[in-house]
């Protein structure tokens, strides 16, 4: 399962489902919208120390980005608590890593989705939205590679750019606030696993618990 989560070709294959449904709805006269229900990523209550661990946030955040890019209106997680894919630990009720991924997504990503592409390695997944509560852009970068640090140059309509250093096995949410053409401010949220263990159930934000 971990190999699939970290395989960009496998993740791209899942996009076909979103793409096909979006095409059907767009070409029909119905007012129905696309929803994802009971998403858990693995059947039979998930897999302990995978679907309730840090590594699963690669899949989960990629799913949220992919679903939004194909005009999916609602994404329901299976479950809040229960099985090995809940957002809360079934014994302690403490949040699993995906809870914090969902929390950051909810607080930062606005409803307007921006067309985004990344040229270079396929191990980087990139999604962008208008910021939820500010005049800016939120960029999500997911590094599926455990041994490569990426220097990413971010360009907006080929008119302005910034450089972003992206370490191995990390998820970054970068909020860019552009008050005018001469000044760009940004906030960065780096999600990593405790002790660099992908099966850890503790997620670090900017190196802190």
TrEMBL record:
InterPro entries: GH (IPR017853), Glyco_hydro_79 (IPR005199). This is Heparanase-like protein 3. It holds the Pfam family Glyco_hydro_79n. Belongs to the glycosyl hydrolase 79 family. SUPFAM superfamilies: (Trans)glycosidases. It comes from the Eukaryota. One of its GO terms (cellular component) is membrane. One of its GO terms (molecular function) is hydrolase activity, acting on glycosyl bonds.
């Amino acid at each position: 399962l971990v190999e699939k989560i970290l395989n960009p070709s496998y993740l791209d294959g899942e996009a076909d489902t979103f793409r096909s449904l979006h095409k059907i709805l767009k070409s029909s006269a119905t007012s129905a919208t696309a929803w994802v229900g009971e998403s858990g990523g693995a059947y039979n209550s998930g897999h302990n120390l995978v679907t309730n661990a840090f590594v699963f946030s690669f899949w989960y955040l990629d799913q949220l980005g992919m679903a939004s890019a194909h005009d999916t209106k609602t994404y329901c997680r299976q479950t809040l608590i229960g099985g090995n894919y809940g957002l809360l630990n079934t014994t302690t009720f403490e949040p699993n890593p995906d809870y914090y991924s969902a929390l950051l997504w909810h607080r930062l990503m606005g409803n307007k989705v921006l067309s985004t592409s990344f040229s270079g390695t396929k191990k980087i997944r990139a999604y962008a939205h208008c910021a939820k509560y500010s005049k800016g852009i939120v960029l999500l970068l997911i590094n599926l590679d455990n041994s490569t640090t990426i220097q990413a140059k971010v360009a907006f309509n080929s008119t302005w750019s910034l450089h972003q250093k992206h370490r191995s096995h990390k998820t970054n949410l970068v909020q860019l606030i552009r008050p005018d053409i001469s000044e760009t401010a940004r906030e960065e949220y780096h999600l990593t696993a405790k002790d660099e263990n992908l099966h850890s159930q503790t997620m670090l934000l900017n190196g802190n618990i």
